[in-house]
Input
Amino acid sequence: QVQLVESGGGLVQPGGSLRLSCAASGRPFSIYGMGWYRQNPGKSRELVAAIDTSGRTTYADSVKGRFTISRDNAKNTVYLQMNSLKSEDTAVYYCNSPQGTLEWGQGTQVTVSS
Output
């Protein structure tokens, strides 16, 4: 029922920034905790940031201090602001609920390269 559509990825130089968006439809967005995941070929998805229904956030150690997750419930959208990007951040980024009850979207490619 819920559809998740990620956007905002692209090619950026090391040290640069990107802002990812995840638009949700089908059910009220505010009832879900949400997270951003990333995945490289041949590897499992890794949760890098999460935000609960009260707006509290958590981050993987690898992105702390560089990434910021936020949400706008009125727009059914969750964001990931990524600063000081490193080559290791290259991946396909997905949004989803950490509860694991929603279908995955297409993801958006982030490539960090000089």
